[in-house]
Amino acid sequence: VDVQTLLNLDEIEEVATKQISKKCWAYYYSAGDDLISKNFNNLVYKQILLRPRVFVDCTRCDLTTSMLGHKVGLPLYVSPAAMARLAHPDGEQGIAKGVSSFGACQIVSNNASMTPEQIVEGSAPGQIFGWQLYVQDQRQKSIEMLKRIGKMADKYKFIVLTLDAPVPGKREHDERSSMSINGLPKKDGSDGGVGKQLFWGTAADLTWKVTLAWLSKHTQLPIVLKGLQTHEDAYLASQYPQVKAVILSNHGGRALDTAPPAVHTLLEIRKFCPEVFGRLEVWVDGGIKRGTDVVKALCLGARAVGVGRAALFGLGAGGTEGVHRTFEILEAEIKTCMRLLGAEKVSDLGPRFVNSRAVERD
Ligand code: FNR
Predict the structure, then answer these.
(1) In this structure, are residues 255 and 164 in contact, taking their beta carbons and an 8 Å threshold?
(2) 8 lines ligand 1 (CB under 6 A)
(3) Given 90, 164, 257, 293, which residue is catalytic?
(4) How far apart are CA 128 and CA 37, in angstroms?
(5) What is the DSSP letter of 250?
(6) Torsion angle of alpha carbons 38, 41, 44, 46, nearest 10°?
(7) CA nearest to 142, candidates 128, 167, 161, 126
(8) Cα dihedral value 213, 229, 149, 116, nearest 10
């Protein structure tokens, strides 16, 4: 399939689904329990209406912005996701190459299928990366990784500590795909699914004070906390000076099912502790399928928006080219949206462009 003929992210996912293995599809697609959070992550954007203004000169449209002070070409980044090579041999390096011409940031997973050195090899000058950490029970392993990342300071600009999955969610598609034909767990150690295997050795005993003090001791890089789902936790994060950004996320619905989508948490923060936006950057991910989804999150206060599955399915549909096409589509959709909305640049976006009443709960 020529990926240039694909027009939207659903079409890319459809093609990827036909090309990747069943096991890979089950791992990428899966989410906790009944997929309520996964589906709601996207649905919630459809319930927010845009409020376009007219008589605005929209000949120019500038998507450039910054993440933690580093210039990026657009407010869209790649969320950390494990095992890209399950989809395509280009793997995480293919994702890096696919997004490089957009000047997009990529967050590399602790459980990537290539080394952090390989992934940034041949990346464009100025292209920035973050590295995502799952603290290991054997802390020394994590300390060594942090050291390796610290040596690539021209590429890796921050550490993302993921907090929403101290244990994996119950992902039945993934579990089912690793059962043998007769439905019984396999004896080769692969039962429970890819997710459960990857989580083996991940620490479940992290806490605010102790873990943040430990992490600050082992990295000089700014710390980003991923997986916050309430205004209380966003506020707490803003009390730690070493925390420079938070990512509102429910892990693509893969951890606790019926946990809120990032949009709800954004709205909570706006209502209960808006000062958080001034103290740190707020990034969001989950459920992004359209440029309008991205623009709505930006209007509600997000500085940058991440895509997880979209990048993986792009890779599955056409390797590096497929990832490039995915970002090309999203970039064009974001531009069209902003022009029709009457916004010239990212910093113009704000709550006046959305009506989010239908999704406000309290
Ligand atoms: C993830 N995610 C994830 N997050 C993380 O912090 N570390 C990881 O290793 C992974 N691995 C991972 C694998 C796969 C297959 C998926 C789909 C997701 C979560 C990811 O960073 C992000 O939060 C979600 O993917 C965002 O939702 P969407 O864009 O997939 O809807």
Answers:
(1) yes
(2) no
(3) 164
(4) 30
(5) -
(6) -90
(7) 161
(8) 150
250 lines ligand 1 (CB under 6 A): no
How many Å separate Cα 197 from the centre of its chain? Answer: 21
Handedness of CA 132, 135, 139, 141 (dihedral sign): negative
pLDDT in tens, 266-318: 999 999 999 999 999 999 999 999 999 999 999 999 999 999 999 999 999 99
Encoded tokens for 324: 């490039």
Q: What amino acid is encoded at 255 in this protein?
A: A
Write the DSSP string, 128-172.
-EEEEE--BSSHHHHHHHHHHHHTTTTTEEEEEEE-S-SS----H
**Size (the chain), residues:** 362
Contacts of 27 (CB under 8 A, 6+ apart): 83, 86, 174, 177, 193, 194, 195
**134 counts as catalytic:** yes
Task: Please state the φ and ψ torsions of residue 202, each to the nearest 5 degrees.
Answer: -80, 135
CB 288 near ligand 1, within 6 Å: yes
Alpha carbon distance 250, 287 (integer Å): 10
Distance of CA 207 from the midpoint of ligand 1 (Å): 22
Catalytic residue among 134, 231, 233, 257: 134
Q: For residue 328, how many other CB atoms are within 10 A of its CB?
A: 16
Per-residue pLDDT tens over the stretch 171-218: 999 999 987 656 666 655 556 788 888 888 999 999 999 999 999 999
